[in-house]
Amino acid sequence: MGKMAQEEIRKGPWTEHEDVQLVFYVNLFGDRRWDFVAKVSGLKRTGKSCRLRWVNYLHPGLKRGKMTPQEERLVLELHSKWGNRWSRIARKLPGRTDNEIKNYWRTHMRKKAQERKQTMSPPSSGSNCSSSASSNAPADSMPNTESFSPSNNPAVDSMPVKETKERSFYDTGGDIEMWAPMGKKDKEVEESDKVYSMDDIWKDIDLENDTIKSIQAMASPIWNYCPDLLWMMEEADSKMFPTMTDQFFASSTLTG
DNA sequence: AACTCTTGCAACCGCAAGATA
DNA sequence: CTATCTTGCGGTTGCAAGAGT
Prior knowledge:
Blueprint: H1 16-29, H2 34-41, H3 47-58, H4 69-82, H5 86-91, H6 98-120, H7 154-157, H8 185-192, H9 198-210, H10 221-225, H11 228-236, H12 241-255
The structure holds a DNA duplex.
GO molecular function, one term: DNA-binding transcription factor activity
Domain Myb-like: 6-58, 59-109
Subcellular location: Nucleus
């Protein structure tokens, strides 16, 4: 019995099918118990990995695409106030994630650094900027072109840190709030791995969000859909389940 | 047209804080 | 009150697409 401890844990890029699966189970169980979701979903991922994928990519509230100039300005402004407190900054930019902002910042700083280099060091002889990227990308410890030192500024940490309880925009509350539109679709996706684009999923989720009623319709389907669920749950989390099912069936019996 | 370098982004890791037993 | 487990954060890395030669 020692060999089936935790099977192989998958790493690296997520497949579309994994995404669909994760969305499905997060919609079902909420976005708090990540270990639980990871187990129950059958995904060979850690809870951590699932959370990250959800927060940074799958969450319906996410904006995609380039940051607007206003957003960019806000990032710079807030960063000058708070330093590398990416998640805090992200809370002020609805639809943007800390990861995204962090990436944007690094890119931004790299650009600035390069501009500086060029203006400061005249293009006299064939400047040796052909070295590897790492050599000209000290963006990490960038002394920030503005006028402060990110992590050295004690004022930064003692600012208005009153927002401890402020939840991120991507919080679904951990309870059943909406119902994913998958159903048997999942089967199809399993085969072609591409039938159901994430864009479609967003649309559907929005739709379903308005009509949570569909929950009534699935009181049992879920158990057919995922037979493994029951035994997994026993192992996974025996104490929260009663509450969960309570709410779950309450809502379906109430309305049905 | 082929190849190399650069850029942007997604995902991982380790650590710390918070929650729960 | 302490120990253990889970979640969240910030830093870092690796890869794919795009730009340049």
